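The material for today's practical consists of a large collection of protein records. Getting from the letters to the tokens is the skill we practise here. To make this concrete, we reproduce a full record directly below:
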Amino acid sequence: MMPARRVAEVEVKRMKDRKIAKVLVAVTVLAMLVAAPMAARADDVQRMKSDAGVGLATAVANIFYIPAKLGYAILGGVTGGLAYALTAGNAEVAERVWVSSLGGDYIISRQQLQGNEPLRFSGSNDPDM
């Protein structure tokens, strides 16, 4: 048999070990709860950076694309008007010029820049499109 003092020391040690174990479990659970959202936020930050990059590229592309498209449309509008006048009012000839020059996309969208949608600089005279 162990003396009472020794039993008390062993019991105190067990209690300390249990407290340490409880603290370790609590710290581990807390660390897991804090780390999980941080990992999710890291994915969100990466996605936001990618979205910002695509947005910036779209804006820069439109700086060059929009003036070119507007110039093409204006020249096509004038050319279609001249074609109408020179063909004595033949609307079919003028319409072919107008549809191809005035149709199409006037801005580049994010989906077009990423290749998910086609970019149409000029309109189509094909009725199926």
